[in-house]
Amino acid sequence: MRANVVRIGNSQGLRLPKALLDACGIRDQVELRVEQGRLVIEPLHAVRDGWAEAAQAMSESGDDRVLDEETPTEFDATNWEW
Question: Cβ distance 24 to 43 under 8 Å?
C-alpha cells in the first residue's frame, strides 16, 4: 500500500486508511521510533493496560503469594495509642 506525504501546517503527515489502523489496533495515540532507517509506528497502550487480567490469572493459578518473609522492626513492637 502506498500513501502520500501531505502538508499539515508547518509539518508533514501521512493519511492512513481506517482499515489499516484497525488492523494494527491504533486508536488515539501511537509510539514512533526509527529502527534501521525505517519508521515504526505502534499503538500506545495505557499505563498498566492488562494488569487486572494478569493479576486475576496469577490469583487463579496460585502465583500471587508474597515472596519475601515479613521482617519485624522496632516500629512493629511498639504499642500505639490512638
Answer: yes
User: Taking a C-beta distance cutoff of 8 angstroms, is the pair 6, 13 a contact?
Assistant: yes
User: pTM score, two decimals?
Assistant: 0.53
Q: Confirm whether 36 is domain-assigned.
A: yes
Residue 7, classed as helix, strand or coil, is strand
> Domain range for residue 56?
26-64
Mind listing the pLDDT tens digit for each residue in 37-61?
Answer: 999 999 988 788 889 999 999 999 9
Distance CA 67, CA 79 (A): 27
Instruction: Confirm whether 59 is domain-assigned.
Output: yes
Going 69 to 50 to 46 to 14, the CA torsion angle's sign is: positive
CA distances (Å), 36 to each of 20, 33, 39, 45, 64, in order? Answer: 23, 10, 9, 24, 40
Asked if the structure places residue 47 within a domain, the reply is: yes
